[in-house]
Amino acid sequence: MKFLQELGLSAVNNGTSTGSLWLSSGDNEITSLSPVDTVLIGSVQATSRADYEQVIGTAQQAFKEWRLWRLRNVVRSFG
Questions:
Q1: Do 45 and 15 meet the contact criterion of CB atoms below 8 Å apart?
Q2: Is-contact 38 20, C-beta < 8 A?
Q3: Calpha distance 3→34 (Å, rounded)
Q4: CB of 24 closer than 8 Å to CB of 31
Q5: Are 23 and 17 in contact (CB under 8 A)?
Q6: Distance, CA of 72 to CA of 66 (rounded, Å)
Q7: Which residues are bridge partners to 32 per DSSP?
Q8: pLDDT tens for residues 70-79?
Q9: What residues contact 25, with CB distance under 8 A and at least 6 apart?
Q10: Of 15, 52, 20, 50, which is closest to residue 30 (Cα–Cα)?
Q11: Within a 10 A sphere around the Cβ of 51, how many other Cβ atoms?
Q12: d(CA 48, CA 26)
């Protein structure tokens, strides 16, 4: 489908991201069908447990860094 190419997508795409890294170790695919004529639009790889754990770990680390950044900015605002 042409619009997939225009969006930079392929027929099968990675379905999991940490925000900066796309992961692709899932064994199963999730398909998307057109509601108009049920033609296959594309697929994404399902997330494996290991990928899920990596995403959670990355999110937890990012929160710790954000919390420190936020705290420093609050302290600075009080002088």
A1: yes
A2: no
A3: 13
A4: no
A5: yes
A6: 10
A7: 42
A8: 777 777 777 6
A9: 45, 48, 50, 51
A10: 15
A11: 21
A12: 5
What are the tens digits of pLDDT across the range 15-70?
888 988 888 776 789 999 999 999 999 999 998 899 999 999 999 999 998 888 87
E-strand stretches of the chain: 12-13, 16-17, 22-23, 29-33, 40-45
Q: Which of 55, 50, 45 is nearest to 18 (CA)?
A: 55
Report the distance separating Cα 15 and Cα 32, nearest Å: 12
Indicate the pairing of strand 12-13 with strand 16-17. unpaired
Residue 39 has a pLDDT of 92
Per the listing, tokens 């925000």 go with: 19
Can you give the length of the chain in residues?
A: 79
Tokens coding 34: 């057109």
